[in-house]
Specification:
Blueprint (H helix, E strand, L loop, with lengths): L6 H11 L1 H6 L27 H14 L7 E7 L5 E7 L2 E2 L4 E6 L3 H8 L2 E8 L4 E11 L2 H9 L3 H9 L9 H14 L11 E15 L7 E7 L5 E6 L2
Helix pairs in contact: 6-7
C-alpha cells in the first residue's frame, strides 16, 4: 500500500516551488513622478576641447571643485565570454594621453571578462553637475612595472586586502575572509607587501567619448567624440 500523502509536506513543496514569485508579491515602486528639470548649463561644440581627454580633464576639475563625492568613481561595464553583461563601480586612478587607468584583480569577474572581450565601457555619473561622461574603448593590461609602482603607494591595509581576497570567488563566511586577512598580516609582518601575481591594472584606450549635459525639457546636450581611421577625433551632436 502506498503511504498516505502528508498534507504538510505537499504544502511545503508547493510553497518552495512558488517561493521566488511569492517573495516578490506586493513589491511595487511608482516612480513616474520622480523627476528633475535640469537647467544648470548648456554644452556647445564651440566650447569644448578638440581632444576628448583634454575635455574630460576640464570636466573632472569642475567635478572636484564642485565637491562631487568621489569624482573618479566610474561604472565599468564588460561582457562575459558567454555574452552576459555586468557592471560595477571602480575608481579611476590615472588619466594619461593614451586613456583611462584602473587597477583590479585579473582573476575577478571583470578580469576574466576583459581577457575574453577587451572592449568595454566606462561611465562617470556626475549628478551634482547634471553631467555624465560615457567612454567606449579597449582595455589592455598594464606593464608589471607600472602595477608595482602603483601598488607600492597603496595603503598597507589595501595591499594586504589584495592578498586576502580572491576577488569574485565564493567566500563561506565573513570570518574566513577576516582570517585570510590576518594570515596576510602575519605573513608580511615587518616587511614590504609584494604585488600578488593575479593583481594588476588596465589602460582603456578610448574609441568614443560622449559628453552629456542635462537641459530643461529633456532636450539634453550630447556631444560625442569618435576616433577616425586616421587617428584624429571627430565631434558630432546626438539627439537626446
Amino acid at each position: 500500500m502506498a503511504p498516505a500523502s502528508n498534507p504538510a509536506s505537499s504544502d511545503s513543496a508547493s510553497d518552495s516551488a512558488s517561493g521566488p514569485s511569492a517573495a516578490g508579491e506586493g513589491v511595487h515602486l511608482d516612480l513616474a513622478g520622480l523627476r528633475e528639470d535640469y537647467a544648470r548649463a548648456g554644452l556647445d561644440e564651440a566650447d569644448v576641447a578638440a581632444d576628448p581627454l583634454a575635455q574630460f580633464s576640464r570636466w573632472f576639475d569642475d567635478a572636484v571643485a564642485a565637491g562631487v563625492h568621489e569624482p573618479n568613481a566610474m561604472v565599468v561595464a564588460t561582457v562575459d565570454a558567454d555574452g552576459t553583461p555586468s557592471a560595477r563601480i571602480v575608481l579611476l586612478k590615472e588619466l594619461t594621453a593614451e586613456g583611462f587607468v584602473f587597477y583590479t584583480n585579473h582573476g575577478s569577474r571583470k578580469g576574466a571578462a576583459l581577457a575574453a572581450e577587451p572592449r568595454c565601457s566606462l561611465l562617470f555619473p556626475w549628478h551634482d553637475l547634471e553631467r555624465q561622461v560615457r567612454v567606449e574603448g579597449v582595455a589592455e593590461p598594464l606593464p608589471r612595472a607600472t602595477v608595482e609602482a602603483y601598488f607600492a603607494v597603496r595603503p598597507r591595509s589595501s595591499q594586504l586586502g589584495a592578498w586576502a581576497s580572491r576577488q569574485s570567488s565564493t567566500v563561506p563566511s565573513r570570518a574566513e575572509l577576516e582570517e585570510s586577512y590576518a594570515d596576510a598580516e602575519a605573513r608580511f609582518a615587518g616587511g614590504e607587501v609584494p604585488v600578488p601575481d593575479a593583481w594588476g591594472g588596465y589602460l582603456v584606450r578610448p574609441s568614443a567619448v560622449e559628453l552629456w549635459q542635462g537641459r530643461t525639457g529633456r532636450l539634453h546636450d550630447r556631444l560625442v567624440y569618435r576616433r577616425r581611421a586616421d587617428g584624429a577625433w571627430g565631434l558630432e551632436r546626438l539627439a537626446p
